[in-house]
Protein 1
Amino acid sequence: MIPFFNIKSENDAYAKAYAKELSLFLESGQYILGDAVTTFEREFAAFCGTDFCVGTSNGLDALRLIFEGYKSLGILAEGDEVLVPAHTYIATVLAVIQAGLIPVFVEPKDGSFGMDVNEAQRLTTPKTKACLVVHLYGELIDVEAFQDFAQQYNLLLIEDAAQAHGAVSKKGFKAGAIGDAGAFSFYPTKNIGALGDAGAVTTNSNALEKQIRILQNYGSPKKYTHDTLGFNMRLDALQARFLSVKLNDYQNVLERRLAIASRYTNEIKNVKITLPIHPQDKSHVFHLFVVRVANRTGFMAFLETNNVGSLIHYTTPPHKQKALQDYNSLSLPVTERYHEEVVSIPLYSSLNDAEVQHIIDALNAYS
Ligand SMILES: Cc1ncc(COP(=O)(O)O)c(C=O)c1O
């Protein structure tokens, strides 16, 4: 069986480097914040091309800290509307609601997975203060269109880049450096995955960076002084060390991922399977390779019989979840249809060529 994802084989290559980091960590005695966190933040800011990076406890907290940071700075206020994609993981929406803001769900353009900028424009009201875009599955949104839109309506442009480490637009804008602030997740299955929970905020705003550092550390600008009702949302120092190891090798990992994605795009030829859009530049880092099929249950059973694992991202859209009861009656037909059709097939750097060929053959044999 080729599993949908193999977390062990993805990390095996780094076992020695991790062991060394663990021993340095023990020697350092710095378990909370400190040099390892600062070093990773510096490296990740340089990687994204932003002035600042603040490591956080996870991706959801990175998003939440961005919104709380802007509220503390007086740039956002409770009750402001935030445009969010309807087709996304629930974390995107939770961050908005938990920060006391109002999510306004925007459909994707039919045929692609990213938020439709024209729909976003149509739903913009005087109460709209921010647009939270998601580079879903690793594919950048239409960068220039959203930058123009945000500028025209004086909106904050915030990126949920949890799935898009290193994606870069034709004009050279990198995920996390496209809008006013970006949120990343380093959940273990992400393109750059920690060995536990971890995340980061990227921004060019010194004011936001400073505010987030205070908020994530109990609202404390200095020890035992608490200016705001803060959180404990710090990046773990041991995870920071592991992440520096992973970041250092990410270019190789990404090349392998893109090579596999290219094979899928070029070699899967089956009229029953709609392949994802595959841009010719590096604006898609293929965190997930998501196909669409009419008979999903049958398709997934066929893959299973042929020893190919698969998963659904995601089975129920956020606005149909019990947790978001206030939004259950919304009708968002493109999103709802996608949630019936999408299937993710295995794509990770430790897949070998024979496995990739097996997956291609299985998809081509589906009828
Ligand atoms: C699009 C998206 N946003 C946010 C998150 C939240 O990240 P985390 O699980 O690190 O909190 C995730 C990952 O799970 C995600 O896929």
Protein 2
Amino acid sequence: MHDDQFRQLLDRFNLAWSGYRKVRKGVKKRISRHMQTLNCPSMQAYLDLIKQNKEALRECELRLTVSISRFFRDRQLWDGLEEDLLPGIIKTHPRRLRVWSAGCARGEEVYSFKILWEHLKQTHTHLPALEITATDKHSAYLDQAREGIYTPGSLKEISPEMRERYFKSRKRGNRFNIKAFVKADIDWKVQDIFAVPAGSEFNIIFLRNNVLTYYKQPLREEGLCRVTKALIHHGWLIVGSHEKMPAGVSNFRRHASIPWVYYREA
Ligand SMILES: C[S@@+](CC[C@H](N)C(=O)[O-])C[C@H]1O[C@@H](n2cnc3c(N)ncnc32)[C@H](O)[C@@H]1O
């Protein structure tokens, strides 16, 4: 597939060419295969077909979606959360802590947070009641997240001791299954960031490696605004390590020492 054809498709969904830089080859392949299955000889024929056929549209959106993730992605962030940010938040909110992972893919980010919380139990005599919501646009990813089975590649930031403690090793296929106590008490929901909110009054929201990377402006800003409306005043927003706040957003201040973490000022 030529770049200009791929651009045409991305434009149809308001997706950003730059966001797909590293994954373009693979996504193009997935789309080309779909075009072949549907007997579409050109991008225009494909665009016409997905306009009329809801199933083909849904499949095309899924093939355009990048769902790459891993446990403790951006290690510096998780160290900063454990050592610096969370102890302070827990002091300020001793009763209840609400956390939302928006665009959670197969659950690696949410389970990383749950593992971090288990660590905090060792150093804190009292922790607030934790309420975690994890959402994604695609139900298939959430089904896999609930199942919680991962390849060794997703666990490369996890030490052997942690792996022993939080995962069951599955003999067949060299896979690791997250243990039931880590899976417990997570509210999984299918939700499109551009549609209804997943809840409100969150203390911490993870919005990493989705709207701020893969969508074009003004959708980046719109997605960000929709999500951050659900954040409490003085709540924390966590973005991906290659992501920036859109220029029009002014009510957030960057955390002094943990990159990618923003504090909502108003
Ligand atoms: C690359 S993964 C990021 C996973 C995790 N947040 C991380 O940083 O490791 C992006 C996820 O965002 C989801 N996503 C993309 N657009 C979305 C939207 N409009 N609403 C909800 N989820 C969306 C995708 O389905 C995918 O699972």
